[in-house]
Specification:
By secondary structure, the chain is α+β, with helices and mostly antiparallel strands. The chain is built from 28 helices and 31 strands.
Length: about 900
């Protein structure tokens, strides 16, 4: 079908089609989810295994290594990382892009069943469909109201049992990030003297409690017409049932648990602390599932929080404060890009009006912009994309392209009109004559962007929306140019036959300048084309200019822009073994230092709207949000001294990035130091740390885990002869130490209608405040005597590491290096690889370890490689398309010869941008 002739004969049909496209496009726009960036699907699964009381070395040897042995062969796995901390082991598995996460979860679950020799007291592994390092997108905090006298830490169990489920019911919530607070426990507090009096031991108590706190099903039996279920019901349902547990019975006496212990509700020892502006609370971070609409998720979670605050939490004297989310920044970024699109469109129309000098012709051409843009929303919706800064940027890029074809068609139609042809004939011949060239132009543009759609790396997923938007917009603009433009011109000419933009008009200054420039340019062209020598000289000069420009102005590569999110994360690296009280006092001190800046501008610094602090184990951060979004960067000089103001603590201050996938991740060079011996790895890490600080003074460096092997550790070496004489063993001694020091979980307490809590066996801990107190405490033996712990074991004080990390099965310490803003990632990588690493290797400070770059640097290298291939593929496709359209293999080469000059123009533009605007990643 001849679409040009059809559009001229059926103007009403074409008009209706355009109106339908506009209607459906606007409907699609309403349904497109708002996002800051496109969803980057990175299939990650984490396996979390708790082992109360275990050290990092025990976690590594008995859990991590066993699980890695079976998980490393999981189909589709590309990277596996693990870390062993006190009481907890975590493995994060990263799969190939495009991996079915449901199938991967099933594979991981099946693999874990092959591990069957977990040590005593290890809890069942928990499998999560999110990476361990993924960061929350919503931050909230539970606190007490002023009239509630209770400590907020004691509401941890209430939070998990009553509040958590409301968060997790919201579609798109993957898991919650919760650290602080102490869980409620059923505590059995033993009196060691009474144990000895009745010749009981801690092992006896544990065995009695475990064997009696059991419900056992005996099956069922048929009696006449009925079936009866038979089971024993012995589980403890209240405190009294625990108190009445009989430990010893004979003719003379009966000893119950209440005779040697006090049974009561209690709380675990506090290990984490969090606060907002000095007010203690329980931080709740929301991690999203993949492909989740963050704006919609935030709206839904906020509705849930408001409902909780007005109902059940209000009755309990509690309240959830909303700390931070991405909605404001997402909406602001999208509004900014939309404004740029409108400004770009307006400027394009002004330029058209300037050169065409008639409203009717300008209107005809300008209609290609809104029609093509609105139609693009239909394609984005059908392909399941979102409305984000990247897709809108693609639309913005294409605004100028959208009018190119329309201008070509209109000018050629007008040329045929000037030849004296009738309106219909001029519209048809003018469009038909150039439609082949228009298709060639559109296809070559599409050929550049289409390969990006098929890239599977992170950058490919991010920029896929640009490719889709540009491809769709250019395709629709082609349709508009060869159907709508000739039809509208024909109708306008019928109504206003004398309205044509080439009619003689009164000369103006602008017209005169345009004529002068046109004459000058044509004179230059004629001069160049005058002789063969001049033509060759021009080609040579332009080629040399292009090559020199590209070579001299080729910029250093950066991965992704940082953006200007209104959030500073201040990550603090404490010395190993920092106590809870010290972490709390640090949080209080940070609040006091920043208190004058909260809600008021001081010394030129912008006012701080929100300050929150979280500390648990080696994890210590405080976040700052400015009242004025645009001034957030100005807070950095204020925050850096605070982060490094505490003895033995250093840290990094990082603005949260637009494309950041994990807490503190983003624009970093990750240096993986792998080896066999922890001390050798740590020494190499310390050497690298110092060398990088010397080479890049402004760089911020975060070691993961700490490079300090100074975690205080006390080793209790059993005296086997003495244990044997007292009818005890090493396991009994370890259990006794656990019970005496912090309490040992021996079961679960399940009261009717209430969720289960841990049952803890402990002693009165007021007398044990140090390892020495434990070492000199008394122990009840099976013979009924009290002996000193020091007679059963020898005490040895040493130092160890706070965390052991594995990367692809090897012990690893990673240095996350954030270069200063004026240095690109490529410059930082080159400096490390060409100067820092060789110097340390020459000095022998890196012997015994392997050094590798990973993280963002890997992604940068992978992206550069894939984009180079993409560029070559685009050039080849473009050449072949033009060869087919022109039926010639030589002419396309002439056109492609302009590419170096175009590249030179791009690099000159980047150089001018960096000249007049400071580099900001």
């Amino acid at each position: 079908m001849d679409i040009i002739k059809y559009s001229l004969y059926k103007p009403v049909t074409i008009t209706v089609a355009i109106l339908l496209i506009l209607i459906f496009g606007l409907l699609a726009l309403q349904k497109l989810p708002l996002q800051l960036t496109p969803n980057v699907t990175e299939a990650k699964i984490s396996v979390v295994t708790a082992w109360p009381g275990a050290s990092p070395r025990e976690i590594e040897q008995d859990i991590i290594e066993e699980q890695e042995l079976v998980l490393k062969n999981t189909p589709g796995l590309i990277i596996y990382e693990a870390k062993a901390q006190d009481n907890l082991g975590t493995i994060t598995l990263t799969f190939k892009l495009g991996t079915n996460i449901e199938k991967a979860l099933l594979d991981v679950s099946n693999k874990l069943t092959e591990v069957d020799n977990y040590p005593l007291n290890v809890e069942k592994p928990i499998i999560k469909a999110t990476g361990e390092s993924s960061s929350p997108v919503i931050w909230t905090m539970l606190r007490t109201l002023p009239d509630n006298p209770n400590d907020i830490d004691t509401y941890k169990t209430y939070l998990e049992n009553q509040v958590r489920e409301h968060y997790e019911r919201v579609p798109g919530v993957a898991e919650l990030f919760m650290l602080s607070g102490t869980k409620q426990q059923m505590q059995i507090t033993l009196d060691v003297n009474l144990l000895a009096k009745y010749k009981l031991t801690i092992d006896d108590i544990i065995n009695k409690v475990k064997r009696h706190n059991q419900d056992v099903s005996a099956g069922s039996i048929d009696i006449d017409r009925r079936n009866y279920r038979i089971r024993t019901t012995a589980q403890f349902r209240d405190i009294q049932s625990i108190q009445e547990l009989i430990l010893i019975t004979d003719a003379d006496r009966q000893v119950k648990l209440k005779d040697v212990a006090v049974i009561s509700y209690g709380y675990a020892v506090a290990r984490a602390f969090s606060a907002i502006e000095g007010v203690k609370g329980l931080i709740i971070g929301v991690k999203p599932e993949n492909n989740t609409n963050i704006v919609e998720l935030s709206n839904q979670v906020e509705l849930v929080v408001n409902q909780l605050n007005s109902t059940m939490l209000k009755e309990m004297g509690l309240h959830i404060d909303w700390l931070h989310d991405k909605r404001h920044y997402i909406q602001g970024a999208i509004d900014l890009v939309q404004k740029n699109i409108l400004i770009g469109g307006a400027l394009a129309i002004m330029v058209l009006l300037l050169f065409l000098r008639t409203i009717s012709s300008t209107t005809v051409v300008a209609l290609a912009i809104p029609i093509s843009i609105i139609a693009t929303f239909i394609i984005l919706h059908l392909m399941g994309r979102s409305l984000n800064t990247i897709s809108l940027a693609g639309i913005s890029f294409s605004v100028g392209m959208l009018v190119d074809s329309a201008i070509v068609v209109l000018e050629n139609i007008d040329r045929h009109k000037k030849m004296g042809k009738a309106f219909f004939k001029a519209a048809y011949d003018g469009t038909n004559e150039v439609w082949g060239a228009l298709i060639a132009s559109a296809l070559t543009t599409i050929a550049v962007f289409v390969p990006i759609i098929f890239l599977q790396n992170e950058a490919g997923q991010l920029f896929k929306d640009i490719a889709i938007a540009v491809t769709a917009a250019v395709s629709f603009s082609l349709f508009v140019s060869i159907s709508v433009i000739p039809m509208l011109w024909h109708q306008l000419m019928r109504l206003h036959p004398n309205d044509t933009h080439i009619e003689a008009k009164k000369k103006s200054i602008i017209v005169g300048m345009g004529t002068w420039f046109s004459d000058l340019f044509m004179t230059l062209i004629c001069h160049i084309l005058a002789t063969r020598g001049k033509r060759l000289l021009t080609i040579l000069c332009l080629t040399l200019l292009s090559g020199l420009s590209v070579y001299s102005l080729f910029p250093k590569t950066e991965y992704l822009p940082q953006g200007n999110r209104n959030l500073f994360f201040n990550i603090m690296i404490p010395p190993p073994g920092l106590s809870y009280q010290e972490k709390k006092s640090i949080g209080d001190e940070i609040y006091q230092q920043l208190k004058p800046h909260i809600h008021q501008s001081v010394d030129g610094y912008p006012a701080v709207e929100r300050l929150f602090y979280v500390a648990s184990g080696d994890f210590m951060i405080f976040g700052v949000i400015a009242e004025d979004d645009s001034r957030i960067k100005e807070l950095k000089p204020l925050l850096i001294p605070i982060v490094n103001n505490f003895p033995g603590i250093f840290g990094i201050t990082k603005q949260a990035g637009v494309f950041e996938q994990g807490l503190g991740k983003g624009r970093t060079i990750d240096i993986d130091i792998s080896g066999e011996q922890i001390d050798i790895i740590a020494n190499a890490g310390a050497a690298l740390f110092g060398a990088i600080k010397k080479a890049i003074p402004k760089a911020q460096i975060r070691p993961i885990p700490s490079i300090e092997l100074l975690y205080p550790e006390v080793l209790l070496q059993p005296n086997h002869n003495q244990l044997q004489r007292l009818e005890m063993d090493s396991l009994s001694l370890g259990i006794i130490a656990d019970v005496l020091l912090q309490g040992r979980k021996i079961g679960e307490f399940k009261s009717d209608g209430v969720k289960k809590i841990d049952m803890i066996l402990k002693t009165d801990q007021t007398s044990i405040q140090s390892p020495e107190d434990l070492y000199h405490s008394l122990v009840a033996t099976p013979s009924g005597h009290l002996v000193g712990f020091d007679t059963l074991a020898d005490l040895q004080q040493t130092n160890s590491i706070s965390e052991i990390r594995h990367y692809n099965g090897k012990r690893t310490i990673t240095l996350e290096v954030t270069p200063p803003q004026e240095m690109t990632l490529q410059e930082g990588m080159e400096l490390l690889q060409q100067e820092v690493f060789p110097e340390l290797k020459q000095d022998g400070q890196l012997s015994g370890v392997n050094i590798a770059l990973s993280g963002t640097t890997d992604k940068l290298t992978e992206t550069i490689d894939s984009m180079v291939i993409n560029l070559i593929l685009a050039i080849v496709i473009t050449y072949l398309l033009m060869s087919a359209l022109f039926a010639n293999f030589i002419y396309p080469l002439i056109i492609l010869f302009t590419l170096p000059l175009a590249a030179a123009g791009g690099f000159i533009g980047l150089a001018l941008t960096n000249l007049f605007r400071n580099y900001s990643a």
